[in-house]
Amino acid sequence: xxxxxxxxxxxxxxxxxxxxxxxxxxxxxxxxxxxxxxxxxxxxxxxxxxxxxxxxxxxxxxxxxxxxxxxxxxxxxxxxxxxxxxxxxxxxxxxxxxxxxxxxxxxxxxxxxxxxxx
Length: 118
Known about the structure:
alpha/beta, Oxidized Rhodanese, domain 1, four-stranded parallel sheet, 6 helices, 36% helix, globular
């Protein structure tokens, strides 16, 4: 499965059946504790926030319960620069999700002023 590009994700925001998962900390997600290198703070529209630390150590059933989407659902994970979301994608796949990583993540998204932010 290939990684997600900014262009693909921008075109799919709000799509039925797509779960967008922000695996950064709650402070990063809310915009109060983001990295100073980012042009803007916040999160992608419609994204749910589950810190990657919450995913660690869960069995597949526990992961599905936390994510709240049925097994087989498409989940796109992102973080600040693709590392934490890469870990999350592997965990999500082990729980039966069709999971993909947005490697550019928040750092790339926040730099494009034309893209929406919450």
